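Q: What would this chain look like folded?
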Amino acid sequence: MDRHDSKSKDRDPQFTAKEVARLTWLTARMAKRHLAGPDIYQSDLERRFDRIVDGAREREKRASQDADKRRR
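A: My prediction, written as structure tokens:
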């Protein structure tokens, strides 16, 4: 599937600089934990990562709804 397909529900949103920094930091922490061993708990970091991505998607959705309201 084309990454820029507008009908794709799983497409990545545009991230703010703060979100990019937080996602990078969490990815580095997950990598560090992975190096510590396969039995190390990572679900907490994965949930935080997912919440940031979901928040960015919600922000984009609200922004597009606001833009639609302004066009009317």
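The chain has two helices and no strands.
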